[in-house]
Design goal:
By secondary structure, the chain is an alpha+beta fold. Strands 1, 4, 5, 6, 9 and 10 form a six-stranded mixed β-sheet that branches. A four-stranded antiparallel β-sheet has the order 2-3-8-7, with helices on one face.
């Protein structure tokens, strides 16, 4: 499981009152629009990407700044609704009658808070090289965890995203992705585990991250070292378990 965050490029994000006097925040995650450069590639969202979020048992949250403690709506409660339309996934959150919700509503209306992003786990994607040489990653199927109103829109963190992205990208295209610390795929693929000194975990993967005791960020997509922590994280778990683990990790981080 690797959770990723994306800002909504040129998204519509509105705060208004409905006919019942309830305060509502609406917006859209647009399909088939290329993102800004995300570190050697651009990204687009397929119309099929969020189909699982539209299922009756889906549980998607509406948060502020990706914090579960600032929860304002969720799909299973009916306070967050999702609607797939030709241009994108439209969302509408009916805010609770709380001081925090009122503050959020006013901040959006005033334009003080305009950032909009979402958190997800990618289940399937496609990589293509466009005519100009740009790599395009298309999200085909994701587990949508939350949508957030943000003070600062979220972009990929290379130290978190690098391993999962490299694993999903065809080998012949990997070398074209810029990786942090200017480490090329050739350096990683040609690293010899036989020559590598074991790190504090006993891992002899040989990639720069593991060498620096950062096994969680292991950048070798073919790493099989049983002492590498990254291999202990790549477990097959269902979407409910992913969501529960994600919330626990965020709660632990805030504590």
């Amino acid at each position: 499981m690797k959770q990723e965050y994306r800002s909504l490029n040129k998204s519509e994000f509105r705060a208004q009152q409905n006919d019942n006097g309830e305060k509502v925040i609406t917006g859209v995650i647009v399909f088939n629009v290329n993102s800004e450069d995300l570190g050697g590639f651009v990204e687009a969202i397929s119309p099929s990407a969020f189909d699982s979020a539209l299922m009756p048992n889906a549980d998607v949250l509406f948060l502020r700044d990706h914090k579960p403690s600032l929860l304002f709506g969720r799909t299973i409660a009916g306070t967050l609704t999702l609607d797939k339309q030709p241009d994108g996934l439209h969302f509408s959150c009916t805010l609770p009658d709380t001081a925090e919700a009122d503050s959020l509503y006013k901040a959006i209306q005033r334009g003080d808070l305009s950032g909009n992003s979402f958190g997800f786990v990618c289940n399937d994607c496609d990589w293509q090289e466009m005519p100009d040489g740009t790599l395009l990653r298309t999200l085909l199927d994701v587990t949508l965890l939350e949508i957030s109103a943000c003070s600062f829109p979220a972009y990929p963190d290379s130290s978190v995203v690098s391993r999962s992205l490299i694993k999903s990208c065809p080998k012949e295209l990997r070398a074209k992705i810029s990786k942090r610390d200017d480490n090329s795929d050739d350096d990683i693929e040609n690293a010899s585990t036989d020559d590598a000194e074991p790190n504090d975990n006993g891992c002899q993967c040989g990639c720069p991250e593991c060498h620096d005791n950062n096994c969680a960020d292991c950048s070798d997509p073919d790493c099989t070292d049983e002492n590498c922590l990254a291999n202990q994280y790549d477990l097959e778990i269902d979407s409910n378990d992913k969501r529960s683990l994600w919330i626990k990790l965020l709660d632990a981080y805030e504590d």
